[in-house]
Design goal:
Oligomer: single chain
Number of strands: 8
Shape: globular
Helix content: 40-55%
Radius of gyration: 17 Å
Number of helices: 9
CATH topology: Rossmann fold
Number of domains: 1
Distance between the termini: 30 Å
Structural class: alpha/beta
CATH superfamily: Alpha/Beta hydrolase fold, catalytic domain
Order of helices and strands: EEEEHEHEHHHHEHEHH
Low-confidence stretches: none
Length: 256
């Protein structure tokens, strides 16, 4: 797996497979690129790139405190290193904050925006509780947090072990900081600036981020929305076949 020095990160690791339209997947706190295990199948249709953000997985921690804008810069630097002028972004959960930041402030580099379980800020009680719980567990009961996250994403024991082992490699302080920065970040007042093609995907049942669906419909009137019936937040792993089909169709229709 290739690695590269980017910004203040001495060694950022990523996977890069397939050809055609480049799509970069952005993971939430702690999980790293392995949460997109099933999205490797998309390499049949496009170029798929899976970075471990600094302090996650195999990537070393940056020599500065991370933030949503910092991680956005990290994605841009990765694109520059790979000679990618424009890319599709696919964010998952808190990774959507980074994707939205890029679409707002660097729209000239983004072709299409795909957001799964997205939120523009953490303004609801459920979301705040989840983030604060993540911060507490990362610091005090890391193995429990890893077990909760891996079990919530899959029943497959092999994938569960893969996710767990990868999360154990994360820098705990970076993991916590990603949660904290996600709590503090907001792009709510700038959503109207996003003009590129957008696709939102949500689990219709039990997804706390559904709280923001109405808001996005009002602010991003050109966007498309897909709701998975009887599903919750973990769409990339639990409903990966449909997830991949929707991503493929939306990307190919948007860039052609």
């Amino acid at each position: 797996m290739p690695s590269i020095k980017i910004g203040s990160c001495p060694s950022l690791h990523y996977e890069d497979n397939g050809q055609g339209v480049p799509i970069i997947f952005i993971h939430p706190p702690g999980m790293g690129r392995k949460v997109f295990f099933y999205q490797h199948a998309l390499s049949k249709h496009m170029r798929v790139i899976f970075p471990d953000l600094s302090g996650h997985g195999e990537s070393e921690a940056a020599a500065q405190e991370i933030s949503i804008p910092y991680y956005a810069r990290e994605i841009l630097d990765l694109m520059d290193a790979l000679n990618i002028e424009k890319a599709v972004l696919c964010g998952y959960s808190a990774g959507c904050l980074i994707a939205q930041h890029l679409a707002i402030f660097h729209s000239e580099r983004i072709e299409v925006l795909i957001l799964s379980g997205s939120y523009p800020s953490v303004a609801d009680a459920s979301g705040q509780l989840l983030h604060h719980s993540g911060i507490y567990l990362a610091e005090n009961h890391l193995n429990l947090l890893i077990n909760i996250i891996s079990r919530s994403h899959t029943k497959d024991k092999t994938l569960r072990k893969l996710l767990s082992n990868h999360m154990k490699k994360a820098n705990i302080q970076v993991w916590k900081q990603y949660y904290i920065q996600s709590l503090e970040y907001s792009c709510l007042d700038k959503l109207h600036l996003i003009k590129i093609p957008m696709l939102f995907m949500y689990g219709e049942a039990g997804d706390w981020t559904n709280h923001y669906l109405k808001l996005y419909r009002n602010k991003c009137k050109h966007a498309e929305f897909f709701l998975f019936t009887n599903q919750n937040h973990q769409l990339p792993t639990k409903k990966w076949k449909t997830f991949n089909e929707i991503v493929t169709g939306f990307v190919l229709n948007s860039v052609n």
